[in-house]
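Sharing a chain and its predicted structure for anyone who wants a worked example. Both blocks are below, sequence first, tokens second.
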Amino acid sequence: MRRADPVAARDLSDVEGAAAAALPPEVWDFVSGGSGRERSLAANREAFDRIFVASRVLRDVSGCTTDATLLKRPVRMPVALAPVAYHRLVHPEGELATARAAKTAGVPFTVATLSSVPVEEITAVGGAVWFQLYWLRERRRSLDLARRAEDAGCEALMLTVDVPWMGRRLRDVRNGFVLPDHVRAVHLDGGAASAAHRSSHNGSAVAAHTAAAFSPAVTWSCLEELRAVTRIPLVVKGVLAAEDAVRAADLGADAVVVSNHGGRQLDGALPGIDALPEVAAAVGDRCEVMVDGGVRSGTDVLKALASGADGVLVGRPPMWGLATAGEAGVRRVLDLLAAELHDALGLAGCADVGAAGELRTVRLPGVAGRGQE
């Protein structure tokens, strides 16, 4: 894969273009694609482009800072790296390089159930590490994986609740996507070859693998079981309805992530940023609220904060950076987000991220942009 100079990137669209040029087409499709006709994937960006902020003036922003807290822990900006499968698809060091970059940036890194590097090796890097869990068909394995993550030093457990099975991702189906031999779901298969490495009758070996592993019977009782067995903060990811967010909080969730899974599950699901205000209003101070899907700039982070979020998760952009320049590429992505957020806060009249939550936003219909600010 051709590597690019990360310092040359001036915004995340530069990094995206470099990654698209560097990766094999079928790998690029796996990383960047959505489900169905990709309407929700496109809507995630369009929703951010429709949001405009009423900036405040005559405020002292000379000490403007992006410092914040997530899950009551200090972070250098209200951003965490979302769980993304198989980092070794795009770079030999995989999740280790991404985790090192997150540590340097002072933001949490979320290890995926479908990580290509064991959680113990990732937590050994240091920094704040969260663990994302899919509920598996074997209940005991789900609970064992949760305990393993906690024992490894993960600071939070994130249950993803919007994947009873993988959405129909047509790019992968058309490509007959199969994992290469060197990329394994180490938490599920113990490093052995799996269905993800064999051609599938429906076209996507990864979908066949997850269908065999993931439980379509994930329910509120699963959340209650996790809350009972783990002492670390519990996050519920994949919530779009306010009623579900309130119930998650009532059952002991420390945070919810408002998300349509990056447009990769139900095609037609509401963008997270559009669902966010109602969810944030409904849960109040019961738990923290984060959002993901379509975040491509520091201005997007500002818009999310102004819409009621405590923070955002970013998924694809760190993968773009990893594909182009490994750890340095991920660092560049996070440095850009931090610089853009600082700029956006100051220009909006906000000395800190708390002030951003007091800004008024307006959604203008029919407004579209290039996807960058």
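Comments welcome. The chain has 15 helices and twelve strands.
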